[in-house]
Write a structure and sequence with these properties.
Length: about 475
């Protein structure tokens, strides 16, 4: 039967097209090396980052062997999630290739193969060709070669010529997928994964005014990227909270966000995330590999603060009878207390971190006066910073009497507070106790904070002293 040439040409084109589609362009691997068109990095304060990125790639109908390069070297492959935003794909297999190229690995794969090396003698180089027998990086990168004459040569590996990169070595961490695509065409791939090597912390700087009644608070975050890759032009989010982790990590849940709030002067928008808090940087940034980046978190001025002097024997007590008791001189702790509320020019959940306190001297220069650490602090809670111990205030505690009654033990205590400052002060005296007790005598009214903590506010005049006297009775067991 004779076939028309035009029809034959059409049939040939159809057959060629079908063949190309059936073998996916002769099974040539698809390399995805382009930079992400969009990237989001969420960093947790516990050696964890979650990455989401988008890249465009052409997939053939049927099976595709895709090499996706440039992911974090510390990726958790079990957390990888891949989907096509605008296509229909199934991931049949996944491999994580992390055998990155270096001199030792290259030479290990060239053992028993021919290479060209150069031995340096001053300004002269001698070319040596031969079979590589061994390589040691622990003895000056020595090579052992057998040349064409069978002679053994031991030389340094300063200059080498190798024909090609050995199979199995790669220059960047790579995910390899076997992807089944229902159609041929461009796909926008959405990749998300977890990686170790990322963390962040908060640091704060406080500057108090002349009489320590107001303070300015600046907050900074330090983001550390040791994940093994650079995240360019990324949306950055920071999560504060105690997220539970297990040995085999699981991906974090998405779309559990609450309403957003923001603090004055902040580059971040804060929002609730599950039972934690997230801080969303309102601009793009680049996190380079092996880099620490500092970003301003908040700025708040005119925060009301109370300076409190505290005499607390918790650091120097022993069990005596039914009470915690101590005697002797003790320095007075200095506290700065302020409320994290909107009415107090704050009102943003504060991540855990270190607060450093500064004050201006007589020349108007800032001087460091102490620091303390804080835990994650919700809004409307009060922060109590232990800054240091007062130089000019001393407390002395004495047991003045002890009586055993038919049903009670009774202790009489005296706390003398000496103020060598040129201003009147008030000292909070704390008694830590327990059991069944009652105050039967006192010269200043106490506050029962709990069954274990009793407080007195004792005023002390400038360059003077004051004495707190109280008797506490405990029920006998």
């Amino acid at each position: 039967m004779k076939i028309d040439k035009k029809v034959a040409g059409i049939l040939i084109l159809i057959l060629i097209s079908a063949a190309i589609l059936s073998v996916n362009f002769f099974n040539k691997p698809i390399m995805v090396e382009s930079e992400a068109s969009e990237m989001e990095v969420t960093v947790y304060n516990q050696n964890l980052g979650v990455v989401k990125e988008y890249r465009d790639v052409f997939l053939y109908q049927g099976q595709n062997d895709v090499f996706y390069r440039g992911v974090a070297a510390n990726i958790d492959p079990t957390s990888v999630k891949l989907k096509s935003v605008n296509g229909n794909i199934d991931v049949l297999e996944q491999n994580y290739q992390y055998d990155l190229v270096n001199t030792e690995k290259i030479l290990q794969k060239y053992v028993d193969k021919n290479i060209t090396a150069y031995q340096v003698y001053g300004d002269r180089k001698e070319e040596i060709r031969g079979t590589l027998l061994s390589f040691s990086s622990f003895s000056g990168n020595q090579l052992i070669l057998r040349d064409a004459n069978g002679e053994i040569k031991i030389l340094s590996s300063e200059d080498l010529v190798l024909p090609e990169l050995p199979e199995g070595l790669i220059t960047k961490p790579t995910l390899e997928w076997l992807i089944e695509s229902s159609d041929a065409g461009n796909n926008t791939l959405e990749l998300s994964y977890m990686t170790s090597g990322m963390t962040w912390r908060a640091d704060y700087v406080v500057v108090t005014n002349a009489n320590d009644t107001k303070l300015d608070l600046n907050g900074w975050v330090t983001v550390t990227n040791n994940a093994g890759t650079t995240f360019k032009n990324a949306s950055l989010k920071l999560v504060a909270g105690d997220v539970n982790r297990v040995y085999a990590p699981v991906p974090m849940m998405e779309n559990m966000y609450d309403a957003k709030t923001s603090a004055g002067g902040s580059q971040f928008a804060e929002e609730a995330l599950f039972e934690y808090h997230m801080y969303d940087l309102q601009r793009k940034t680049t996190l380079k590999d092996n880099e620490q980046k500092q970003i301003s978190l908040l700025e708040s001025a005119g925060v009301n603060v109370e300076k409190e002097y505290v005499y607390d024997d918790i650091k120097n007590w022993w069990w005596y009878g039914n009470s915690y008791s101590s005697e002797g001189d003790k320095k007075i702790d200095v506290m700065l207390n302020f409320k994290n509320s909107k009415e107090n020019n704050l009102g943003i959940p504060l991540p855990a971190g270190i607060i450093r306190v500064f004050k201006k001297d007589s020349e108007g220069k800032l001087q460091f006066v102490g620091e303390d650490s804080i835990d994650h602090t919700p809004r409307d809670e009060t922060l109590k910073l232990f800054v240091g111990q007062a130089f000019d205030i001393v407390g002395e505690r004495k047991q003045m009497d002890f009586n055993i009654l038919p049903s009670w033990y009774e202790y009489a205590w005296e706390v003398t507070l000496r103020n060598h400052k040129d201003e009147d002060i008030k000292v909070t005296v704390i008694e830590r106790t327990g059991g069944d007790w009652e105050i039967v005598k006192e010269n200043y009214a106490h506050i029962k904070e709990s069954n274990n903590v009793i407080k007195w506010a004792v005023p002390v005049k400038a360059n003077n002293e004051a004495t707190l006297q109280y008797t506490i009775r405990y029920k006998r067991l």
